[in-house]
Design goal:
This protein is α/β, with parallel strands linked by helices and about 325 residues long. Helix content is about 40%, strand content about 15%. The protein has helices spanning about 1-15, 15-35, 40-45, 55-60, 70-75, 80-100, 110-115, 135-145, 165-170, 185-195, 255-265, 285-300, and strands at about 100-105, 125, 150, 175-185, 200-205, 220-230, 245-250, 275, 275-280, 300-305, 310-315, 315-320.
């Protein structure tokens, strides 16, 4: 199947514009018979159509409205009928297979920009580095897109990559952010996110340093904040009470019990109630975990759990479950 699809795409890329236009129905059937996927159709969009022929110019006339302006005609010179046809087919297949358009690298930008005019309200899912969203290709997509936007710009392997400028560039745009995962460095970035993600279903925010998070939308269904270990002299930067926040503390090294406790207390909402508290790759001993649980329990911190105050999980992620019942004391 893969070989058959490759042959069809190669033919599509090698023919001149008039021949391909004439053979389009046959090529479409061959792609279907070869079992072409949505990815195959997106690849087919990148064929290089040569200089426009007389037929292309006749077809291009249909790209203009009845009372076309000079600008319309200038835009029409960029109209390539076969390119539009392939893009429309790629959009249909992508929606059928994935239910959305996806961007995972800069290579996907041109293809998505070509498909969006055929389905501008489609959900767009981005799983890429912030650098991809600093390009002209991305800005073109923002102008075309009218649907829900889900941004996943959080990559633990590449370290802290802030996207404050990307969020600010979306202010006043049409896309509606329904989900966000990324790193934010400044209060300006937080306020920008609060404005463009007021109806978000989930927010995962990694911080480099303490920030005032009070502007974050309260209608969000799920809020998780990833924070580094803070010093004992840190001022309180309470999270909003709603939605009940999830907190992940990074860098809990051996001997850092007091610093971890201070970090949890500094971000605690006014109710002192978290949905969840987690330690990311902690290095605390069992005795240190018990001390940490005792400190937080005595300070009035609680999580959305029942039973005895305890730790659960594995060495990659330990959950601090803090209930009304204090932690048990180990036998001597």
């Amino acid at each position: 199947t893969a070989r058959a699809v490759s042959q069809v795409i190669a033919k599509l890329q090698s023919n001149n514009g008039s021949n391909v236009s004439a053979q389009w129905p046959q090529l479409q059937h061959r792609m279907r018979d070869a079992g072409a996927t949505a990815r195959d159709w997106r690849d087919a969009m990148h064929y290089r159509q040569p200089r426009a022929t007389a037929r292309d110019w006749r077809d291009a006339m249909h790209c203009c409205p009845p009372r076309a302006t000079a600008r319309d005609w200038r835009d029409a010179t960029q109209c390539r009928p076969l390119e539009v046809t392939v893009a429309n087919k790629a959009a249909q297949c992508s929606l059928k297979e994935d239910g959305k358009f996806m961007i995972k690298s800069e290579c996907d930008l041109d293809g998505v920009a070509m498909m969006l005019p055929h389905a501008p309200c489609t959900t767009l899912a981005v799983e890429a580095s912030p650098q991809v969203l600093r390009t002209a290709g991305w800005h073109k997509i923002v102008q075309l897109h009218r649907g829900d936007l889900r941004l996943n710009l959080l990559d633990w392997e590449t370290g802290f990559q802030p996207c404050d400028d990307v969020l600010e560039s979306l202010l006043g745009s049409k896309p509606r952010i329904k989900g966000f995962k990324g790193c934010i460095r400044t209060f300006t970035g937080i306020t920008a996110l609060a404005q463009i993600a007021s109806a978000a279903e989930y927010l995962h925010i990694r911080l480099e340093a303490p920030l005032d998070l009070r502007p974050l939308p309260r209608k969000c269904r799920y809020l998780r904040i990833y924070v580094p270990l803070t010093s004992t002299a840190m001022l309180a930067v309470p999270l909003p009470d709603l939605p009940s926040p999830h907190l992940t503390v990074l860098g809990a090294a051996a001997g850092s019990v007091e610093a971890v406790a201070q970090t949890v207390l500094a971000y605690a909402p006014s109710s002192k109630w978290y949905s969840d508290i987690a330690l990311h790759y902690p290095e605390l001993s069992e005795e240190e975990e018990r001390r940490l649980l005792t400190l937080l329990h005595e300070a009035g911190i609680r999580t959305n759990n029942a039973g005895t105050t305890r730790c659960e999980g594995h060495n990659k992620k330990r959950r601090l479950i803090i209930c009304n019942e204090p932690p048990t004391t180990p036998p001597p």
